[in-house]
What we know:
Elements: H1 2-41, E1 50-52, E2 57-59, E3 62-63, E4 67-70, E5 73-75, E6 78-85, E7 90-92, E8 95-102, E9 105-107, E10 110-117, E11 122-124, E12 127-134, E13 139-141, E14 144-146, H2 158-169, H3 171-175
Parallel strand pairs: 1-4, 2-5, 3-6, 4-6, 5-7, 6-8, 7-9, 8-10, 9-11, 10-12, 11-13, 12-14
Amino acid sequence: MFSKSKINEPAQKPAEAKPAASENRLDSARPDALNTEFKASAPKAKPPASVLSSDLHVTGNLKTTGDIQVEGSIEGDIRAHLLTVGEGATIKGEVIADDVVINGRIVGRVRGLKVRLTSTARVEGDIIHKTIAIESGAHFEGSVQRQDDPLTGNKSAPKPAAPAAAAPAAPKPAEG
C-alpha cells in the first residue's frame, strides 16, 4: 500500500507544485504587507538603557528619548525618559525625566512624573513631581512641589500670574 501511495504522491506533487508556485506569487506580494507589519512593530521594540560607567565624567548636557543609567559623574542637565542614578553617581545640574530613580547624589532641580528617592539617595535641590516616593534614610534638602505636568516646568504658571498681578497694579499708579 505504501508503494502505491508513493506512486500516487509524486503524481500529486507536481499538481501541488503548481498551486505552490501560485502561492509563491501571493507570498511575494505578502512579504511587502508583512514587512510593513514588521516595520510598524519595529519602533515598539525598546532599546536598552544607555549606561554611563563609574569611571566616566561628562561635562555637558545629555538629551535622549530613551533611558539613561548614570554610574559616573555629570556636570550638566539631563533630559530622558527614564533616568536611574547609581549609588556612586553624582549629577550637578537639572534633571528632567518621566521616571527618575535616585540612588546616588543630585545637586540641582529634579523634574519628573514619578520621582523615587531610595535610602541611599542624596538630593540637594527642589523636586517638582506628579508622584514621589522617599524611602527612609534618603537625604533631601530642598522643596517639594506637586504639579500635574512637571516636565514642562512651572515657568509657564508664574509668568501668566505675574503679569496678571502686575497689570492691575500698573494702571492704578498711572491713573492716580
